Amino acid sequence: MAYVDGTRAAAWFIDPETVETTTMACFKCDGCAGLMIASVVTDGYEDHESITALLSFLGDHRDLLQWSPSTSGIRGFPDVPEHIGAAASEAYRCADSKNLRAAVLLARSVIEATAKAKNVLNGGLRQKVDEMHERGLIREHIKEGAHEVRHLGNDMAHGDFVDPVDKEDADLVLALMSEVLAEVFQSPAKVARARAARDAKKQASTS
């Protein structure tokens, strides 16, 4: 990752209300040449007298850097219906931007949209998840994972914001959401492609 040289390729500014300093710089990927912004927020005043000092500061805080766009932000979901996959990707982008409540709410909505896509329409989300299991769409442990997403998502959906959502909770919810998508859409599609490829080879060998 190479720093992009230029008068406006690096900056730092102070929030007058929180007295937090945001330091950022623009970098170019060595592989694809795409541009990315690295930033870090710190408490108190940071005086960067030069670009060299600013880049050194970013390097010292490498573990805390936020990158935009991020790899999680462009996460794709092959074989998942477009509207559901787009919402799932958006949930990851929300988490990456530290909008954790929004990430959890979207993950819950993705689970419900998945049920509806499979014509599981009756009752609330709890009933929908149970019915997906009863129909053989998800295994027992995936059902339990979907219920975990439902539990935390319900708190957000019903306006219970007393307890904050931490990054660990959000990451777990997104991982469980992804497991549901893999179980319902992605794994069956992979099996279908493997079966089709085997049948094509068998047919070619007998013709």
Describe it.
The protein has 6 helices and 5 strands, in the order ββββαβααααα. The chain folds into 2 domains: 67 residues; 124 residues, Four Helix Bundle (Hemerythrin (Met), subunit A) (Up-down Bundle), CATH 1.20.120. The N and C termini lie far apart (53 Å). Strand 2 and strand 3 form a beta hairpin. By secondary structure, it is α+β, with helices and mostly antiparallel strands.
Which features would summarize this protein structure in a list?
single chain, 207 residues, alpha+beta, Four Helix Bundle (Hemerythrin (Met), subunit A), 2 domains, five-stranded antiparallel β-sheet, 6 helices, 54% helix, 14% strand
Task: Please give a quick description of this structure.
The chain has 207 residues and is an alpha+beta fold. The chain has helices at 51-60, 82-96, 100-117, 125-134, 140-157, 167-206, and strands at residues 2-3, 10-14, 20-28, 35-43, 66-68.
Topology:
Layout: E1 2-3, E2 10-14, E3 20-28, E4 35-43, H1 51-60, E5 66-68, H2 82-96, H3 100-117, H4 125-134, H5 140-157, H6 167-206
Antiparallel strand pairs: 1-3, 2-3, 3-4, 4-5
Helix pairs in contact: 2-3, 2-6, 3-4, 3-5, 3-6, 4-5, 5-6
Whole-Å distance between the termini? 53 Å
Number of helices: 6
Beta-strand content = 5-15%
CATH-derived topology of the largest domain: Four Helix Bundle (Hemerythrin (Met), subunit A)
So, CATH architecture of the largest domain? Up-down Bundle
Low-pLDDT segments, ≥5 res: none
Largest sheet: 5 strands, antiparallel
Radius of gyration from CA coordinates:
22 Å
**β-strand number:** 5
What series of H and E elements makes up the topology? EEEEHEHHHHH
Question: Please, what is the average pLDDT?
Answer: 83
